[in-house]
Amino acid sequence: MQTTRREFLTTALFAALATPLPGSAARYRVGITTNTRGGWEKDVWLSFQEAQATGYRHVESFIHYFLDYYDDKAERLQKKMDEIGVRFVTISNGTPMEMHFEDPSKHTKVVEDHMRLIRFIKQLGCQHLKINMGPRRETGTTDEDLKHMARALNEIGKRSTDEGIKFAVHAHMWSQFENRREIDYIMEKTNPKQVYFVLDTGHITMAGIDPVELTRTLGHRIVEFHMKDTRPEHRGGAKTRLDRPDVMKDPPFFPLGHGGVDFPAIKAHLDRIGWQGWLTVELDSSPSRPPKESARISREYLEKTLGLTM
Question: Domains in the chain and their CATH numbers?
Fold first, then answer.
């Protein structure tokens, strides 16, 4: 059947209206990490159910919760997720995986363990792997450590790219990979097309870094944000390093809107550069209210202040 000019223009108009404009909320995918202490950390299925009831449709978690489904039972796990009504953002590394990236004698196991996880999450529809580095030594991370870490990250990044999965490293207080010196080194010494970054607004702030500035610096190399807030006095980067606290008695991180992170400025820059990716709400602990309520507070901030939809 021949299409008339009017029909063609009408079709084109509807297509244009259906296409998200630059900076629109459709470019952002929202999820939540659900291992929040105070009620969710011991029951991953309860956390998924309550996150779903609060309006979240994508969840992030850690591999130790799903060892019974490793390696060939991903289909069973996906069925359970479908019953709850959620999908994975990603599944992070952790116990019992080898995570001593700074030790070259353990690199073979480090690479094998992370490729195993990459192949597993690929079956679940994940598009990137977010990883933490191993625990921080009292002496900190040396230049030699960083050299070995970069080598292992590059190897995993290359193999992950071959699998069609983006590989992203997460800077985290009290880990091998924490401060600006370490971030700058790893970002410079790894392949930008194979090793990406997860920017955790809370951990970056408490490491003395302005998350707005780091967002501008790293741009499209960021594939995911972990969205958590800090105390207002830490805005722009804490002035002193935070020793690891008891997160139930003295929490350093809070639901969105607490005042320590300039989320509107972050989103404004992401809008300007046409960034696409995950904004994943995360709260390490919720001592004064149920995790479900903290999740609701952050969801309302995303919707009412940042103009996002779930």
Answer: 22-304 (3.20.20.150)
